[in-house]
Amino acid sequence: MDKRVFVVDDEPQLLYAVQAYLTRAGYDVIPSESGTDALDKLLDGPPDLIISDILMEEMDGFEFQRRVMALTGDGIPFIFLTAKGDLQDRLHGLRGGADDYIVKPFDPEELEARIASVLHRVEQTRREERREVDYLRGRILSEVSSKLRTPVTSLMAHMNLMLSDRFGENMREQSRYLESALEDANVLCELIDDLSWAAAQRDAELTLKREPVRIALLVRGAAASGARRAADKGVALRITCGGLLSGNVDATMMSRVLGGLLDAAVEMSPSGSTVEISATRAAEGGIEFVIIDGGCDDRHGGPSRDLADALDDARRVVEGHSGQFTTERDDAGCQRFMIWVPGRVAKHVGRRN
In the chain, what is the greatest distance between 2 CA atoms, to the nearest angstrom? Predict the structure, then answer.
């Protein structure tokens, strides 16, 4: 399958020339005459690599790079192809996260070689990361297997002694060995729980699929799933989300997180109160989700297992998105759940009037 490459430059002739050359070299080239247009195309699917000019009128290359990284983290290799050849400009681009910096005029063969080199380094890094994950997985499974063997062996020994009627009518000895067997069984259950948690964490990391989605759909979906519980308890739901807001997230996992936190917030809120869920563009870039309960319900009796599970789930998924998850209680006694993930801002942001 051909590598998908975005080329962004506001000079039509150069854009056409680079597209034609890279297409002949075997790349699937997506041209854009502005950073804003490229960000729109990014919603249709991330490329394998981005090549961008710096001196563009609508949005310069440094700003375009910053927005790409806010949306995708550092997952997409980025090359600057520009006439700005000063040392400070090159340092600015490379320190900002660019993988290479090519100054115009350039040789097309050199550009192709630089692209191949960057893609090779990225693939090599990913292979090394996969090897490290495989090594850690094997090590963990080996350690867990070793820890499981001891209580299983002891449990079998105790049960065999009981089955052999070795103690006759000595109820005290029978009771002592039954207690030991029960302790071994409890240790075994704890180890199995730990193994299940680790497996779930690993599965979440391996299956996390970040794609461009409309954030309003996630928020409304979470609110719809919690609407019945809220209605049964007499709690109102307030939803705030701009329709143009987009983000690069795993829609299934993030929807599950928002729904779980919203259900927990409704459960903790007293009848007649209002639970809020909102999604906005964060000041530092990215998307911020906030869920606020309606205040403490005195009958709730403290944190539930559902809340603990929702918090653990949120932390795993948000960390998988390279984001941040925090909780706090405000002066009014309301609990706030706050999620920040790198994400796309509304389309009109950055456009000139």
Answer: 98
